[in-house]
Model the fold of this input.
Amino acid sequence: CKGFIGTKGSIEGPYYVPDSPKLPAKCTMPMREKDKVAPPLVFKGQVTDLEGKGLHGATVELWHADEEGFYSQFAPGIPEWNLRGTVKVDENGYFEITTLKPAPYKIPADGSTGWIINSYGGHPWRPAHLHLMVKAPGKRAITTQLYFKGGEWVEDDVAADVKPELILDPQPNADGIDEVTYNFY
Done:
């Protein structure tokens, strides 16, 4: 909305499922054994008010596709809560989540969606992204998606949803694991 300051919102998308498992501030997302061999991603940050004060009691709900572009509860053979969780931040609003970098995926291109895409010569691809819903007592919830710098389809998202403020640039940490910090306010 115009006039609001703070973290930029984004579309929720069709793959949100409420009541994901509750996880502590420092955690690893629920994942299959086969997902554990994918390169990990450490996603960390802080949830604050507009003045920068950490928000105790906030939650960061995260869900995303796997390394093949599929979401749990929307594809066969994937455990119910795979790569889904609701993280309760620590007393200063901090969180640190180990997960994996998702893959880009194609949206269904049949029916009316396919007709629209074909009518303008488009493609059905979404770039790799993390879905987030951030909530804090007494504050307006934020629903957003975060993308990856240089990722395939970032410059040409079928949903036209990528904003510069929502692009992550993970870098290897001291252990060689890709890590990125993103703060919500």
Summary: The helical segments are 111-119. The mean pLDDT is 96. The CA atoms of residues 61 and 86 lie 4 Å apart. The domain at 22-181 is CATH 2.60.130.10 (Protocatechuate 3,4-Dioxygenase, subunit A).
